[in-house]
Amino acid sequence: MRHFPTTLLTLCVLGLCAAPLFAQEAQPAPAQPAGKETVKQQASYGIGYNIGGNILSRFKESGVEVDLTQVLRGLTDAIGGKKSAIPEKDIEAAMTAFQAEARAQQEKRLAELEAQRKAEGEKNKQAGAAFLKANAAKEGVKSTQSGLQYEVVKSGTGKSPDANDEVKAHYHGTLLDGTVFDSSVERGEPIEFPLDRVIAGWTEALQLMKVGDKWKLYIPSNLAYGDSPNPGSPIGPNATLIFEVELLGVTAVPNQAPATPRDE
What we know:
Radius of gyration: 29 Å
Number of strands: 7
Distance between the termini: 51 Å
Strand content: 15-25%
Number of helices: 6
Structural class: alpha+beta
Helix content: 40-55%
Shape: elongated
């Protein structure tokens, strides 16, 4: 028989691995009143329930729709040692067609997700540009050549870090709508990190700050995470970010190879 699609093959392996755990007889055991099952019956039910959950979750993840009645029929026949009710050549043809349909559905779903991501990114880009344009005109807000904007909240008198220094800072990060996506302030613990290993907006801004400074940073998306933020992050594509950052300390790190600014 030809190779099954990955999802289906995985499910078949699950079934084969579970088969030896069932009693030799294929006949179902008589139903027991709730709470009266033996340990063997409870464990056997748990095995079946877990297999069913895995099958269902894998089909949902892949976006493949199947006839669960027929899935159960096939499992029951195989575990019972029965001959396949459908000729092998028909199953092969069906698997080939099913695999093609599943692949088409997956590609369609990926295309839809990419279109949604691009639409969200364009919306965020326009919102960020409008915000930064209005923000730049506010009293106390300064802009750098890169497009970074900052506002001095409190002035310090300590040293300024170089790009390859390690710094200690407190920060509070929000989206334009005020959503907090990360905050050492809320965790109650400042962080220490090499300045050349964070987003470009941070690398630039903190080199302008002195120890003791507290600034509010307005970072355009091209100096933050661009159109590819970390998967699962509340930060959307092309999002403009706002940080309140307090520089608490600087430690020189000699002979450290620079890294690509990416994550905080």
